[in-house]
User: Fold this.
Amino acid sequence: MSSDSVPARRTGGRSALVIAAVRDAVEDLIAESGADKVTVPAVAARAGVSPSSIYRRWGDVGSLVAEVATLRLDPDRPLPDTGNIGDDLREWARELYGHLARPTKASLLRASAVLADDGETNCLASRRDEAERLVERAHARGQVTPSVRQIMDHLVAPIIYRITFEPDTGDTGFPETLVAELDRITEAG
Amino acid sequence: MSSDSVPARRTGGRSALVIAAVRDAVEDLIAESGADKVTVPAVAARAGVSPSSIYRRWGDVGSLVAEVATLRLDPDRPLPDTGNIGDDLREWARELYGHLARPTKASLLRASAVLADDGETNCLASRRDEAERLVERAHARGQVTPSVRQIMDHLVAPIIYRITFEPDTGDTGFPETLVAELDRITEAG
DNA sequence: CCCTTAAAGCAAACTACTGTGCGTTAAAGT
DNA sequence: ACTTTAACGCACAGTAGTTTGCTTTAAGGG
Assistant:
């Protein structure tokens, strides 16, 4: 044994199964009864795992929910690359909405709002990064684009707002409308 | 005693004091430690009230927080009435932002996001009503206006989104920017 | 001012969540 | 394979949240 070695982490086999089962259980329970009803014992029972395993690995419900929210709301998908910023944004917005409008994701999103109370949000931070990349790519092509702030304010914000505070506004086509309106802001800017 | 009389409610004196103290305590605690840390015993202690009084009147923390959120996020203020929809919206947006950006209100807002999981949100419903009234008044004057949907998507949503998910974006002047951009969407529509 | 009783307080029982010691299982490294 | 030990499960102890019966207080009505 070397004197200052870091303890070997166990990432496979049983541990991996436990982690996966717990994360799934959190997602299910949040979707079923809301984030405020999620407790460690409930998650443990659903996952078929011992509560103490959860406490030792995650500490408390908050950290656990935060982790699941970050993982599940932030899948890094390939960015659309049509060669046209308008089409890129349209597809990007449609995908964002389609992804987060599912009830399970929506509940996770609402849960992460509460977690934003203390410092780090980051569960939507990568959206801004994506917008930045889309804009930079368009600029490299010499295209005129909305600013990243405008994309966040007039595209991301309305989508997130509706999902969070006005569910069952089942207007699947509205990302397109938003992109069109964003375009109006940009042109002749 | 009449046979089918409704029991007399007690609205003044001690009961009123208890109700006020409890509501204040909820607001304080949410601002201090986040909605997930608010418990009935904690509220009771802060309010100088017995926990059982809270349980009997409100049932559980969820209902209590929901009530406080509705009351505190929905003060019905007088609507601006300048004779011009642009100026009305500018003032309305500025006031909305100024009101909700305070840390205490922001925490309440985030808390109410979780409560939106089960059915009724309504804590922002009256904002839509206000927007409707502003628009109707402008139409009566023969003015061209953005639609209520556009006001919600491009004015209310960005404001709420920033407060909820991106606090410390201390740009007090941005409601004005939003109104200007909304105007661009509307003109030549 | 007095009577009625809604609503508060108190205290104890009860339930649920959290934390820890200890034996067991199995992942990672040789 | 074998060894080491991280991570799991179990069981029990500790703490925190909830519920309920009873007593006390005082609001509302005559």
Q: What stands out?
A: Residues 8-15, 39-41, 51-52, 55-56, 60 of chain A lie near DNA strand C (CB under 10 Å from a C1'). Chain A has a mean pLDDT of 91. Chain A has nine helices and no strands. The radius of gyration of chain A is 20 Å.
